[in-house]
Amino acid sequence: MTDDLRRLVLVHAHPDDETIGNGATMAKYAAEGVEVTLVTCTRGEQGEVIPAELAHLAHPDRLGEYRVGELASAMTALGVRDHRFLGDPSVPGRPAEEVRAGGGVVYADSGMAYDHDGGVVPSPNPPAGAFALVDVEEPAERLAALLRELRPQVVVGYEPGGGYGHPDHVQAHLVMMRGVELAALAGPDDEAPWVVPKVYWTVMPETLTREALRTLRDGMGEDYTGPDPEDRLPSMVVPDDQVTAAIDATAFTAAKVEALRAHVTQVKVSPNGTYFALSNDVSQPVMGLEFYRLVRGTAGGTRDELGRETDLFA
User: Fold this and answer.
1) How confident is the model at residue 266 (pLDDT cuts 50, 70, 90)?
2) What are the Cα distances from residue 308, in Å, to 3, 9, 271?
3) Where residue 115 falls among pLDDT bands split at 50, 70, 90?
4) Cα gap 261→265, rounded to integer Å
5) Which residue has the higher pLDDT, 179 or 3?
6) Which of 144, 249, 250, 294 has the fewest C-beta atoms under 10 angstroms from its C-beta?
7) Which residues of 23-61 are buried (b: 16+ CB within 10 A; e: fewer)?
8) pLDDT tens-digit profile of 190-240?
9) Residue 225: per-residue pLDDT
């Protein structure tokens, strides 16, 4: 790797999270020659299987293995060559049984449930080794070692609420932030420290989000199953002034749609690719414009009409 090479690391909890939140951004930067590395914390083996024809996969061992393959296909669609499971030296396309038996640690998907108000709560019976229950320091040290190795200029992850409250997402946020702190220190074997110049949280501006949901609701009519545009929205939706960067990757929306379709057990994509839904059947628009909040480092470069960065590396 040359010293002037741009490097981006994204930290996500399960396969499919990366495509939903950052897929267009990942495809854009990969096409521009940026070294994009995805770090996934679990195999997502507690996910609910949507297609009836794949119902036989609804077992942690079978589903985890299948979602490893889905992730590899999605990364191919986005042009991302380097994707790893946290704590494991996996490479794209590595068989799931080797991932499980490899030299690192593959954390267990903690599971989740919805409460009576539709909010996310931890699974009442988390599996052994559940990622959300692991002491933050251990996975953070593993992430720090990876950051010292890759020396990225930009790291992207969730805001403190984990996007929508999933316990693995919240844990991934804590691990990312602590991992960045630890990477700035020398490693246990005297690895050179690396101070990450810029850290971003994935967010959505409130005004645009509500407008997009209204448009989707009006266009779908009785078929609309999304959240009430006038009601409380997930934690990733923030006041407009907290959004500091807007990445226009609309040219890569088709790649994002292809990657979403690769996550077939977890994501339903509309025939025209304009919206998608997860197992809760909540409609969400597919967007090629993705938003971020800078929480470490200095903003720079060209700004849009609202004063937001247009390049995470500026």
Assistant:
1) very high
2) 27, 21, 33
3) low
4) 9
5) 179
6) 250
7) bbbbbbbbeeebbbbbbbbbbbbbbebbeeeeeebeebe
8) 889 999 999 999 999 999 999 988 998 999 898 888 889 999 999 999 999
9) 81
Both tokens assigned to 284: 């969400």
Interatomic CA distance for residues 242 and 20, integer angstroms: 20
CA angle 84/147/134 to nearest 5° reads 65
Buried b (16+ CB within 10 A) or exposed e, 107-144: bbbbbbeeeeeeebebeeebeeebbbebeeeebbbbbb
User: In angstroms, how far is CA 109 from the centroid of its own chain?
Assistant: 14
Among 66, 61, 63, CA closest to 48: 63
Closest CA to 229 of 244, 242, 218, 243: 218
Which tokens hold the place of 136?
């933050």
Q: What is the pLDDT of residue 95?
A: 41
Q: Residue type at 227?
A: P
Q: What is the CA radius of gyration of the chain?
A: 19
Cβ atoms 171, 246 nearer than 8 A: no
